[in-house]
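Hi F.,

I've been meaning to write this up properly since the lab meeting, where we talked about keeping a consistent format for the predictions we share between groups. The idea is simple: the sequence comes first, exactly as it goes in, then the structure tokens exactly as they come out, then a line or two of notes. No screenshots and no reformatting. I'm using this chain as the first example so we have something concrete to point to.
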Amino acid sequence: MGVPTMSDLTIHRYDVDLDDWVEVEMPKDAVIIHAEISDRINPTGIALWAVVDPGKPLTRRVIYVRGTGHRLGDAASARHIASLRMTLASGAVLVWHVFDGGVAGDE
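Output, unedited:
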């Protein structure tokens, strides 16, 4: 097998629900690089892309989602990933702010 190199890294997509917080399984040390409103699987969810080493063990990451004007709570100390616009059928626009809270607390 050998030691992983930069060429072992890949980009994977993860689809999650749009909720105050969710946990998503991804390889240890994954770096989330992008987020947007999902266009498949769950059209009211969020798609995340991360640089991962697929050979590393899986760990659970906490993702926080906050609307504009909402209290940050635990997301205040998390890394901001992206701000996403969602246009509703009524024409109203909601803006969601996505944060990476890191590895889930019990791991």
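Notes:
The chain has one domain: 6-103.
The chain has a mean pLDDT of 89.

If this format works for you, I'll send the rest the same way.

G.
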